[in-house]
Amino acid sequence: MSGPHHHGGGTVGGISVVICVYTEDRWEDILAAVASVRAQSLAALETLLVVDHNASLLDRLGKEYKETEGVRVLANAGPRGLSAGRNTGIAASGGEIIAFLDDDAVAERDWLRHFAEGYADPKVFAVGGRTMPIWESRRRPAWFPEEFDWVVGCTYKGLPEGRVRVRNVLGGNASFRRSAFEAAGGFATGIGRDGDRRPLGCEETELCIRLTRARPDAILLIDDRAVIHHRVPAARERFAYFRTRTYAEGLSKALVARSVGAEKGLESERRYATRVLPAGVGRGLRDALLARPGGAGRAGAIVAGVVTAAGGYVLGSVRARRAGASFSVAEIGAGTDADGEGRQP
């Protein structure tokens, strides 16, 4: 446990880390994720493992960390899925800052320290970091373009470098002030990922846009020194997954655009589609002409990714118009955790 942390004249309260878990298949990954939090140069106030409707995993983790100070295991108190799990963790946490780490990732030693530094400015409401892929095959597939590393939950080519303002942070490596959730509510359920089903996303994009509408003065940052390393299983190194994930992103973006308006919902995507991706295609074709491996494949994958994402967006837009934006925003219980107990001051 740790008290307030002082950074550059500002004081940051304790940081709670929330790790959402759902399957025993990732047992070793979960243990590694928790160990990386416990090894931080700036100690976390607590680590919350939120188990998504899996009784045996809940029981096993409860036994594993029964004697471990600062690690709490709790059940997702909402509907199945990542968003409700995060909301459960937020409601149960005691920190002024809540950080999120994927269950198949490990954080570098100064991860939380770099997050904390960002909050020295009281206008900063969110700080995200850089997520690096760990390919199961030990090397990036030659055809896989860096511009599409978001497909495997990682930082992609085209994001600005350093510590910079952004429209939204990326959910697997991010932190928020508690007051962000008090101002805007929690993560929306009905947009994001549900276990291994269709890999939808964008719930953090929608939350960040909602936050800046509720608090127009809010600053959101990415600090690329706050690094985590994210495992990419072999199944996600294949083109079939790439195509499925880009299509699902289009579906999710349509829901977000329906909710917050296309201008804000697609603001960052326009720059990405008009500048970053054409440059990537150009590099791929140049590499192909120079007989470098994977050049034509990367160029082709970028084009295929754009086409499938656009297809998902069109279909998602039609569905959203017919049925409305089918997701809901949870209010985060002020001062009450998932077990109905009071939150730590």
Short description:
By secondary structure, the chain is of the alpha/beta class. It has helices at residues 27-38, 55-64, 82-92, 111-118, 178-184, 203-214, 239-260, 262-265, 267-289, 295-323, and strands at residues 5-7, 10-12, 15-21, 46-51, 71-75, 97-101, 105-107, 124-135, 163-165, 173-177, 188-189, 219-232, 328-329.
Description:
This protein is an alpha/beta fold. The protein contains ten helices and 13 strands. The strands form three sheets. Strands 3, 4, 5, 6, 7, 8, 9, 10 and 12 form a nine-stranded mixed β-sheet that branches. Strand 3, helix 1 and strand 4 form a beta-alpha-beta unit. Helix 7 runs parallel beside helix 10. The longest helix is centred in the last third of the chain and has 29 residues, at 295-323. Residues 1-11, 192-199 and 334-345 have low confidence and may be disordered.
Number of helices: 10
What is the rounded distance between the termini? 13 Å
DSSP strand tally: 13
Q: Please give the largest β-sheet.
A: 9 strands, mixed
Proportion of residues in helical segments: 40-55%
Mean pLDDT, to the nearest integer, reads 86
Q: Please tell me how large the radius of gyration is.
A: 20 Å
Shape field: globular
Strand content: 15-25%
Which class do the helix and strand fractions yield?
alpha/beta
- Uncertain residue segments: 1-11, 192-199, 334-345
Q: What letter string, H or E per element, gives the SSE order?
A: EEEHEHEHEEHEEEHEHEHHHHE
